[in-house]
Amino acid sequence: QVQLVESGGGLVQPGGSLRLSCATSRKVVSINTMGWYRQAPGKQRELVTTITSGGSTNYADSVKGRFTISRDNAKNTVYLQMNSLKAEDTAVYYCNVDLIKYYSGYILYTGRDYWGQGTQVTVSS
């Protein structure tokens, strides 16, 4: 299976910034839409932002103007720059890809709806 590895989480004070990264493993050929979701304790997982292979983005209203998603297609990596962080941003952040093509040996595989293990973001004074 394909593995997505998130990094960059941590503890930050309100108003601070963090930059999250999501890297793929093994021989990846292409990824369609990549996105970030988050889940706070006792709450449902929610969409934060997505970016298509062509660079089109969308954001949840709660993060517009503060968060920026970007991707490096050559590295098959997606980033989330988080500025002006608030206490309500505290959650585990998960990377997601809707469609990914990769080689395992000499065989090309297609995978759908893959998730990373998550990285903790805590915003507290």
Short description:
The protein has strands spanning 4-7, 10-12, 18-24, 27-31, 34-39, 46-51, 57-59, 67-72, 77-82, 91-104, 107-115, 119-123. By secondary structure, the chain is an all-beta fold.
Description of the molecule:
By secondary structure, the protein is mostly beta strands. 0% of the residues lie in helices and 59% in strands. It is built from no helices and 12 strands. The strands form 2 sheets. Strands 2, 4, 5, 6, 7, 10, 11 and 12 form an 8-stranded mixed beta sheet that branches. Strands 1-3-9-8 form a 4-stranded antiparallel beta sheet, with no helix packed on it. The model has no long low-confidence stretch (mean pLDDT 94).
Task: Output the keywords.
125 residues, mainly beta, 8-stranded mixed sheet, 4-stranded antiparallel sheet, 12 strands, 0% helix
Rg computed from alpha carbons, rounded to a whole number of angstroms: 15 Å
N-to-C span: 39 Å
Measured by DSSP, the beta-strand proportion falls in over 45%
Mean model confidence by pLDDT: 94
Q: Which sheet architecture does the biggest sheet show?
A: 8 strands, mixed
Shape: elongated
Secondary structure: number of strands: 12
Roughly what percent helix?
under 10%
Give the helix tally.
0
The structural class is mainly beta
Summarize the helix and strand pattern as letters. EEEEEEEEEEEE
- Residue ranges: pLDDT <50 for 5 or more in a row? none
